[in-house]
Amino acid sequence: xxxxxxxxxxxxxxxxxxxxxxxxxxxxxxxxxxxxxxxxxxxxxxxxxxxxxxxxxxxxxxxxxxxxxxxxxxxxxxxxxxxxxxxxxxxxxxxxxxxxxxxxxxxxxxxxxxxxxxxxxxxxxxxxxxxxxxxxxxxxxxxxxxxxxxxxxxxxxxxxxxxxxxxxxxxxxxxxxx
Length: 178
Fold this sequence. Notes:
Layout: H1 3-18, E1 33-35, E2 41-43, H2 45-48, E3 59-63, E4 66-68, E5 71-78, E6 82-88, E7 96-98, H3 99-104, E8 111-116, E9 122-135, E10 138-148, E11 154-156, H4 158-161, E12 164-168, E13 172-177
Parallel strand pairs: 6-11, 7-10
Antiparallel strand pairs: 1-2, 3-13, 4-5, 5-6, 5-9, 8-9, 9-10, 12-13
């Protein structure tokens, strides 16, 4: 056998290993977990205040705390530990927080946007990135939020629930995964 034939025989097993059909799936256990001695991942979400719904959860039901002009207000958790009341605003394309919320989250503005508000006027708002926004088990990660200094309450917008069909009932808001 010539030298080239020997080289091919030596590298062929390596090529076979590199082109194998094995699949690897990444598991994201969330931000609050531990690994036991046998390698199993154990969620500590309840200790950390983070709910971790089953992967097959298709509907998230969120209790309505109150209403402002008939519009539902729900509790929203930011970054796994800060809870604020927000309006579920099906007409808002983006999530908006007020200055008090931004301060509590230690949110540093990263950009500005031009926003058209309900009366048709256009305003400039600062924006920042929050690590997570969670409502009743539905979670959005690394979401850009607008900061409205004069707002009394935040608005939960389409950037959060855009992948869900939203059903507003008497006592709950339902997010149905599409």
